[in-house]
């Protein structure tokens, strides 16, 4: 899905990280690669995979879990709060649904190889549900945001009042 866009976003993220200032977090760490330089951060959009699965429903809501994993060879990083700029797509076309955040936004979570994280997408039961198969979002750090757009694939239904919870440790 939208492979060309994902490649363009990954390239843009690399460019943005090089030019990032102020509120943009660098998402790098001092761990060295075999070549002697720092390893790429797991937080960068091109360096992790995210999958959407159905979570347990609660009274009045459907829940979906977005689980993010990073392959070995990437540096761990820290995330905090709910992802921002969340958008949903169905077969490559953007839905009209937007999502707000909920829950504590200042809890720091470690993410990297062997340390997956997840966040919740909470959707009220309603008649205006729209099918989606992809979510795009911007990750936050304790100091700002990660440049670029992360994406997660998996079937879900979204609608008015959709909320995204903070990143939490574990799959």
Please outline what is shown here.
The protein has one helix and 14 strands, in the order H-E-E-E-E-E-E-E-E-E-E-E-E-E-E. The chain has 171 residues and is mainly beta.
Major beta-sheet overview: 10 strands, mixed
The gross shape turns out to be globular
Global structural class:
mainly beta
SS summary, helix count:
1
How much of the sequence lies in strands comes to 35-45%
What does this structure look like?
The protein has one helix and 14 strands. With 171 residues, it is mostly beta strands. Strands 1, 2, 4, 5, 6, 8, 9, 12, 13 and 14 form a ten-stranded mixed sheet that branches. Strands 3-7 form a two-stranded antiparallel ribbon. Strand 10 (140-141) and strand 11 (144-145) form a beta hairpin. It is globular, with a radius of gyration of 16 Å. 36% of the residues are buried.
List keywords for this structure.
171 residues, mainly beta, ten-stranded mixed beta sheet, two-stranded antiparallel sheet, 14 strands, disordered N terminus
Walk me through the topology.
Elements: H1 3-19, E1 49-58, E2 61-69, E3 77-80, E4 84-90, E5 93-98, E6 100-101, E7 108-111, E8 117-124, E9 130-138, E10 140-141, E11 144-145, E12 150-158, E13 163-164, E14 168-169
Parallel strand pairs: 1-12, 6-13
Antiparallel strand pairs: 1-2, 2-8, 3-7, 4-5, 4-9, 8-13, 8-14, 9-12, 10-11
């Amino acid at each position: 899905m939208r492979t060309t866009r994902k490649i363009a976003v990954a390239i843009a993220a690399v460019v943005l990280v090089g030019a990032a200032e102020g509120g943009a977090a660098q998402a790098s760490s001092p761990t060295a690669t075999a070549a002697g330089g720092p390893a790429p951060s797991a937080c960068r959009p091109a360096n992790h995979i995210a999958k959407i699965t159905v979570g347990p429903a609660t009274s009045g809501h459907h829940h979906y879990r977005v689980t993010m994993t990073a392959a070995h060879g990437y540096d761990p990083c820290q995330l905090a709060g709910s992802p921002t700029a969340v958008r949903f797509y169905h077969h490559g076309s953007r839905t009209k649904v937007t999502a707000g955040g909920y829950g504590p936004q200042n809890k720091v979570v470690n993410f990297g190889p062997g340390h997956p994280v997840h966040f919740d997408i909470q959707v009220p039961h309603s008649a205006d549900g729209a099918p989606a198969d992809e979510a795009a979002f911007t990750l936050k750090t304790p100091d700002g945001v990660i440049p670029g757009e992360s994406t997660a694939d998996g079937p879900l239904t979204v609608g008015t009042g959709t909320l995204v919870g903070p990143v939490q440790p574990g799959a």
